[in-house]
């Protein structure tokens, strides 16, 4: 299994791009916890901390597809690095000004979220030109999904470490400086400087004019709802079974399950259309959420939580391939950024939905939400099966920036039979 990943990492520029992207995304991955810790250190309330973190998240969800479109139009270096610098400067204003006056604090975190560079979508746009072989690109998508789980596990630890050693203010500043360095490492690389989007048809909808992409985004909105709701239900469970330590183990198990599932999924090539495979993966994801409603003791519950995460990273990796197949020419970075935004919005909706459900029916009903959301996601995929089905094409391997099933100007990978 490791051999396939090592082949990718030994490819020229691959390790640098993956590492630089992960480091560059640290400020985004840690923003919520860093903002909460800083507000509390400043003497602010949890309500203020939550509101500021929510403003950051909303601004980030808005900014990703907008900046992704600019990347497609003007290239990566001209957009990614200035955006990273502006985002870091805005967070520095927040760190030095504090929470008073409140309007300045809200404006600063909103600007920081809005200008967060779309490094995630940018990396997925670069993989085809770096790896050349279609099978390696699909393995890289899986490796990317696994690496995200590592980042979202390590990131909060770095925040708490910086806060313990220095201060919450220092954590905000240090992580954003590190993020700029990560973005710089990516944009000065030869693949990033050489990458150009395929010619695009001018259209105000951009990537969203693809019906297949819209269907995928609708399905992944509910996958995000499932993930967001499980984090709230786990808090309620932990309150009755050991407190914060148990909650930490449950969240770690969720990430570990996703990491293991993604690693195994990416270790082989899968026959058949990815659209059909995604329906299977999302169905298994919904089924694996069901045992959580049993709510056994902490140890078996941790094992069930790990099981519930096993099919998350594979589903995300499979979705990356489908985005690549359905993104109109010239919109690949924007299309991947829309997936990030939709997933983020779904997680926020799930968090907000699970709160009242838990207050009404307890953790049992809270854990029923993820499975229900997964079931709705599956229904969306089934109902839009014809829209999602990509036209059959003859496989062509060439070095180009992206793939368009309808009117690609430059042929690239045809993901017809293997993905």
Q: Which whole number gives the mean pLDDT?
A: 82
Which range does the strand content fall in? Answer: under 5%
Distance between the termini: 17 Å
Residue runs with pLDDT of under 50 for 5 or more positions: 391-419
What is the percent of helical residues?
A: over 70%
Protein topology:
Layout: H1 2-10, H2 14-24, H3 26-41, H4 46-74, H5 77-97, H6 102-114, H7 119-131, H8 134-165, H9 168-187, H10 190-194, H11 211-240, H12 244-265, H13 274-289, H14 298-309, H15 312-326, H16 332-383, H17 385-388
Helix pairs in contact: 2-7, 2-9, 3-4, 3-8, 3-9, 4-5, 4-6, 4-16, 5-6, 5-9, 7-8, 7-16, 8-9, 8-12, 8-15, 11-12, 11-15, 11-16, 12-14, 12-15, 13-14, 13-15, 13-16
List keywords for this structure.
mainly alpha; disordered C terminus; single chain; 419 residues
Structure explained in plain terms:
The protein has 419 residues and is mostly helical. Helices cover 76% and strands 0% of the residues. The chain contains 17 helices and no strands. It starts with a helix and ends in a 31-residue tail after the last helix.
Compose a concise summary of this entry.
The chain has 419 residues and is mainly α.
């Amino acid at each position: 299994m490791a051999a396939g990943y090592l082949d990718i990492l030994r490819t020229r520029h691959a390790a640098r791009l993956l590492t630089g992207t992960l480091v560059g995304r640290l400020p985004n991955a840690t923003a919520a916890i860093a903002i909460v810790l800083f507000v509390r250190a400043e003497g602010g309330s949890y309500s203020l901390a939550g509101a500021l973190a929510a403003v950051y998240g909303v601004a980030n969800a808005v900014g990703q597809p907008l900046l992704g479109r600019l990347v497609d139009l003007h290239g990566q270096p001209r957009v990614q690095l200035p955006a990273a610098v502006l985002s870091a400067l805005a967070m520095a204003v927040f760190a030095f000004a504090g929470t008073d006056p409140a309007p300045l604090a809200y404006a600063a975190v909103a600007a920081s979220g809005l200008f967060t560079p779309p490094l995630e979508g940018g990396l997925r746009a670069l993989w085809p030109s770096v790896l050349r072989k279609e099978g390696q690109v699909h393995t890289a998508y899986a490796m990317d999904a696994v690496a995200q789980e590592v980042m979202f596990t390590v990131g909060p630890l770095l925040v708490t470490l910086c806060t313990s050693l220095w201060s919450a203010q220092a954590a905000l500043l240090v992580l954003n400086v590190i993020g700029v360095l990560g973005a710089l490492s990516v944009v000065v690389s030869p693949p990033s400087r050489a990458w150009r989007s395929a010619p695009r048809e001018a259209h105000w909808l951009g990537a969203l004019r693809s019906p297949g992409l819209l269907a995928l985004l609708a399905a992944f909105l509910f996958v995000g709802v499932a993930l967001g709701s499980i984090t709230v239900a786990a808090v309620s469970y932990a309150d009755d079974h050991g407190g914060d330590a148990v909650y930490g183990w449950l969240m770690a198990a969720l990430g570990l399950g996703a990491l293991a599932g993604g690693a195994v999924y990416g270790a082989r090539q899968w026959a058949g259309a990815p659209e059909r495979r995604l329906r299977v993966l999302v169905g298994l994801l919904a089924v694996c959420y069901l045992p959580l409603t049993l709510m056994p003791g902490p140890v078996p519950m941790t094992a069930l939580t790990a099981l519930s995460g096993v099919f998350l990273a594979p589903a995300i990796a499979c979705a990356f391939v489908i985005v690549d197949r359905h993104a109109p020419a010239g919109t690949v970075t924007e299309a991947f950024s829309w997936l990030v935004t939709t997933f983020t919005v779904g997680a926020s909706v799930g968090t907000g939905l699970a709160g009242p459900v838990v207050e009404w029916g307890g953790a049992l009903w809270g854990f029923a939400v993820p499975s229900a959301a997964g079931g709705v996601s599956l229904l969306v995929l089934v109902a839009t099966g014809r829209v999602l089905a990509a036209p059959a094409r003859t496989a062509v391997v060439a070095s180009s920036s992206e793939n368009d099933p309808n009117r690609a100007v430059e042929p690239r990978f045809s993901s017809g039979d293997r993905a």
